[in-house]
Predict the structure.
Amino acid sequence: MKILILKICLWSLLCCQSLADLPGWENVRINMNNIGPTVYGANSITHAIVTNIPHDYHDFYYIWHVNEDIFSFQVYHAYNETKYIYQWDSDDIGMNTVHVCLFKGPFTMIKCNSTKVLVNSHLQVNFKVQRTSGSWLQTDIFPLGTVNISCSLIDPSAFFENSTITYNWTTGDGRGYTNASLNASYWTTQHKYITTGLHVLKVNVSTTGPNSAKYYGIATENITIYEPITGMKVEPDKAIADRRTNLTASCNGTGPVYFEWFIIRGDECQFNDPNVTRITTLSQDQCFSVLEYTFNSSGVYCVNVTAVNFGGSYLKKSILHISGTVSPTITATIAAAIILIFISLLLLYIMYAQTTTRKRRVEVASFDYLLPPPQDERSTFKKLTDWFKSRDQNDNNRLPLLIDTGDNYGSITPNRLDNNVYEL
């Protein structure tokens, strides 16, 4: 640049006018940009746009120069043009510098500027992976399913316009490989991912230029496939007012997952209400969240939970019925009633046990005495007494003798109830 400006200044010494003699021209600007990068052998295109030119003059000379080649001067005369396009052969691989100076007429230099241009030895490829529907801020994260994959050459001068371009694809999951050859600098395909995790997509591009030279290019793209959120459930562990309740949200999906909780009284779920409660939680590894929350009063509540991961989002609306808190007085009354019921049942059992025992004794006393009815009451009573004695000795499960075996036998008289059945 310094050499170019020095040569131009030496040339300007021959001029009849200087910039100081041209009021209004000191604010002129030259903005430059290159359409590239490009490959060696192709035509490189550089733009120069001039601004702040006085309106009374439109006769310009552009002097272009690439790198420091003293033989590369190119002069272009442009009338009434403030934008000029410069095409040059990009034969030098690496970073090139393009210079331009603007002259008013052939001898008065107004302004100079320069820009950098990269010339590559290989093809430049624009590689892109997109969702088939919707949008996402991060371009390297996708849900399970189908993605759009596209590839295009960076060829601003249409150097490969008539060339056959071959694209070889791998999709990074061991399932996809594509080969396409066509006369186009743009190609696209679709691929369906069925496994989550990191996948490395790769495309190899090759072609032959109009100069018969071979050109190659490689592009890669890392993408992460996430399982989208499905099947979410929202459940409370209890539904009592003024008690801490654990609200559990569970779902299917790859973590991390952000949970946004909206809770409001009523079943209309108007979450623009200023009284709505909004809480955000984060689960790093799984689609699961527990929110500790206290409902201030009984009634119906609407709970909306939105779960978001890199695979998408899921909304679940739930209606909860919260019951009132049981007072201590009611609790004590219920406990006392339970105790009274228990005591009553215990007393009834004792009474029943005693009645059963007495009945068994009577049945024992009146059972098996099946002798014909004797005429002598004393003899009958004596036999009955002997029977009781023998039963008590032979059967430990029997009760002790129920009658006195003294000599006063006549004080007890058995009553005949039926054939062969007597009652003492």
User: Anything to note?
Assistant: The first helix runs from residue 2 to 12. The radius of gyration is 53 Å. The chain has four domains: 2-120, 125-226, 232-322, 366-423.
